[in-house]
Amino acid sequence: MERRLHAVVLPPGPRLYGALTAALDGSGPAICPLSPDLPAPALRGLLGTLAPHAVETEDGVQPYRAADPATPTTSTTPADPATPADPGAPAAPGTAVLIATSGSTGTPKIVELSATAVLHSATATLARIGAGPGDRWLCCVPTSHISGILVLARALLGGAAPVIHPRFDPASVEAAGDVHIAMVPTQLRRLLDAGTDLGALGAIILGGAAASPGLLAEARGRGARVFTTYGMSETSGGCVYDGVPLDGVRAAVGDDGRIRLAGEVLFTGYRRRAALTAAVRDGEWFVTPDLGTVEDGRLRVRGRIDDVINTGGEKVVAGEVATALSRHHKVRDVVVVGRPDPEWGERVTAVVVPAADAPALAELRAWVRETMPVHAAPHELELVEAIPLLPSGKPDRALLRHA
What we know:
Layout lengths: L4 E4 L5 H12 L4 E4 L6 H11 L3 E4 L2 E4 L31 E7 L7 E6 H15 L7 E3 L6 H13 L4 E2 L5 H7 L3 E4 L1 H9 L9 E4 L6 H9 L3 E8 L4 E5 L2 E2 L3 E5 L4 E6 L5 E2 L3 H6 L1 E2 L2 E11 L2 E7 L3 E4 L2 E4 H9 L4 E11 L3 E10 L6 H9 L10 E4 L13 H5 L2
């Protein structure tokens, strides 16, 4: 029997949690959660790409009709050749949850996940962090992203209704008491700055972006039990914790340096994008867009392959430079990007949130050159009050490259 697909345009709350529960146990349609805060053109574009049977909002459930004036007749992202774009195309067999993601390119893709994949991820996480039955989970990350959906799935398996905060607020987090929580590094920094008693919280699942060693050391020194994670929508969220894959997950690095992941957490495909799906699958492996190494049995993420900076004929992995800079005592937060340069092709640019004393370019260049080749040292320094973020909590690299 073909399974229906609903676009669920709901704020975080009981109705969304109920829709997810029904999607995972098979009693309801597959769902694609979309943020009700999306601008109308962006929402119409995603609905055109998704082509669901119906759209659920706070006003109820309505059939989706692409011919309606309020919605597009074609997708803003072309489907693979000969793939139909008719509204109401069923979800791929076994699909329970779909996640719209633009990655770092801005091109929307819709990841199809089975109930098995989502529940395996949630179960393995509960085991890894030592969560027990009845433990509470606080959701303060977007439920239109895999991070928020997984918080709800973990709560479902744990048997305690989730505590849902539509917006992140340090005071509300502290007031929630003993809860497990997922967040991005910027949110953890805000908790530290607010003086939150991190020891009173449960496990902190940290993902979405690389966390600096200084941030982790400060948080753990304040009593936090932090697990750093690596993963993406295609792997049902974080599937490698502190460099070690979850149970049932395998990680490797290919000859090209790209991280490869396998296991039950993998997605079944991109909706209506068979060719794109095939391009990132190699048998049982998902070939990620990230570079990595395995050191002492742990996976270390070097950075995204599309964040490699070509400067003067040399290649620089932006993530590695950022990691080096994050250890400098005058650097509170940092992102490294390549900006167009008429002489070098790209210049290595450090966008830094300073600590109490602002660093100078010369001292950051000298710092990087202690451990990395001279061409990796930044040629430009921009000091900012905060790193601009995408809704997912990841740095907005596209904006920073052209600032």
